[in-house]
UniProtKB/TrEMBL annotation:
Signal sequence coordinates: 1-20
Domain annotation Peptidase C1A papain C-terminal: ranges: 115-330
One Pfam match: Peptidase_C1
Source organism phylogeny: Eukaryota, Metazoa, Chordata, Craniata, Vertebrata
Stored PANTHER family: CYSTEINE PROTEASE FAMILY C1-RELATED (PTHR12411)
Protein name as it appears in the record: Cathepsin S, ortholog 1
GO biological process assignments: proteolysis
Presence of the UniProt keyword Protease in the record: yes
Keywords, comma-separated and alphabetical: Disulfide bond, Hydrolase, Protease, Signal, Thiol protease, Zymogen
Amino acid sequence: CRMHILCAVLLSALLALCHSTSDLNEVWSQWKIKHRKDYDNQTESAFRRAVWEKNMQLVLRHNQEASEGKHSFTLGLNHLADMTAEEINEKLNGLKVEDFDFRNYTFKEANGLSTPQSVDWRKNGLVSPVQNQGLCGSCWAFSSMGALEGQMKKQTGILVPLSPQNLVDCSTNDGNYGCRGGYISKAFSYVIRNGGVDSERFYPYEHQNGKCRYSTAGKAGYCSNFHILPQGDEKTLQAAVASVGPVSVAVNAMLPSFHLYRGGLYNVPNCNPMLINHAVLVVGYGTDRGQDYWLVKNSWGTAWGEEGFIRLARNKSNLCGIANFAVYPTL
Ligand SMILES: *[C@@H]1O[C@H](CO)[C@@H](O)[C@H](O)[C@H]1NC(C)=O
Ligand SMILES: *[C@@H]1O[C@H](CO)[C@@H](O)[C@H](O)[C@H]1NC(C)=O
Ligand SMILES: CC(=O)N[C@H]1CO[C@H](CO)[C@@H](O)[C@@H]1O
């Protein structure tokens, strides 16, 4: 973490030297090459450049403040830096708000079992590599498959990445909308109804809606049920993550500081727990310099955050609503 802050400060210093337009042009060119950006026409390019410059101002100001100890995390010009917050929320954050009766949660804390101080399921091989959902609102499919991968690994001893594309293409009858959004619970409903889900290898991700081509030949996961945790209860979420494995959750990912998150412990005063729009996966938790955090896997590629992960403040009044809709499957 210290490393991230140092790098960010150095980068800020370098960028601060870039006063002249020609230097800024160079930074822009490098950024476009790094993130493989190619715009259709001059109008589009000029618009993207303006958005990128605005985001750069935000990143520089924030990181300057972080270096003064005002923030516990830094921002960076990742691959989303040429998009407005509105565009990101419209195109990437396709989680539908669940209409469950949360009184019916079924997770029972094991009596007498003390919850460990920290958990990181990556160390136990329960977490597959981070993927990039692209400009497709399929977060719900990545989150749910991530939770199922963990349970399958516990059962079989083998970690097999499962296919979010299978969910995107085949679960419309269960109430999902492919790249236009979906529900974590209805992803599990599909797997139960369908009797399985294919592996990522057999049914690779395509960044867009396609024709359903599920085949039992590629089946690598299954589940028989799923369980919802009591709403807003971080203590129970902690116990579930510790005893069950990775848990699917929904968060408020609307803020530019979330979009451009680079590293550190994400903690902001204004992340409303009621405005949930993005599905992610809690893969652990811990404490850093006295502040508790959730270890969360996103599906925005490894250029985002800490190699694709974010550490989000835990036990801070349900920050960003992380414990508002937590669910995990059982085999
Ligand atoms: C430029 O590209 C954008 C995005 O691809 C497109 O929406 C727009 O219509 C194009 N404008 C012109 C003048 O071709
Ligand atoms: C949350 O923090 C408060 C004090 O900051 C502490 O009293 C409480 O036990 C913590 N709760 C959990 C679930 O860690
Ligand atoms: C789907 C389901 O099981 N719903 C039940 C949730 O719990 C209430 C009582 O608290 C029942 O009335 C519902 O049938």
